[in-house]
Amino acid sequence: MFLSSKKKLTFENFLRGMKWCEAGDTDTKLRAIFNLLGSAKNVTRANFIKVLEIVYHNPEDKKAIPGIADVVFNQMDSDKNGNFSEKEFVDGIKRAISEEILQQVLQFEVLPNYMRERLYEDLPEFQMDVALASGETSAAPTPSPSTFIGGFSTARASPSDRTIKHLTDKIYTKDLERLCNKLGLTKEDYDELKGKSRDNKHLATLILMKYREKSGGQTNSKELEKALRDAGMIEASQLLAP
């Protein structure tokens, strides 16, 4: 996907790959981890033990490897055929670990801020707004790339579609009714949006869009950051921190 026609990885495509790693959803990142196990097919117990032997160097730790393999295969190998597929791996991880903890574990930033800014300036695919989960588009103007730090708007403007998409991924498992209150939305607003939403993720998107609509373009990232922080959504608020 990121190789040039000469089968070489250019620095520009390396940056594209790094940005893709950061922006991927939970399932995408888990599939990438599965591929790191060294097999595009199913992972056998023998292959998994080889991976564990690379990870655990201490002789005392190596004694625990068979037991670790047993625990993992009991969780992952749902059809008990002696190996697990990519789907079994992803489903097994999601059964064992809550979505909130998974997001925290898999949240990482590979690129430093100055390099991420350059991506938005120089690579056209990162200048386009990410489509909203609701499938709706917004008439609100998107700030120019130079107003982005780490991909999030710091200008005195309404949150962009891209910002809403990233924030939604962080907050949809939280107390969204409390967030409505901190954003200055009413109980009636919340009930109306909940009635329109398909699920919590869609509801989170609708709440942020409603906030943007009511603000009339007069809000900024600092005000939104404070509302998120006051609602106890610290990780999401940090995305907007200077």
UniProtKB/TrEMBL annotation:
It holds the Pfam family Death. Residues 64-99 form the EF-hand domain. One of its GO terms (biological process) is signal transduction. Gene3D superfamilies: Death Domain, Fas, EF-hand. GO terms for molecular function: calcium ion binding. This is EF-hand domain-containing protein. It comes from Mizuhopecten yessoensis (Japanese scallop). The lineage of its organism: Eukaryota, Metazoa, Spiralia, Lophotrochozoa, Mollusca.
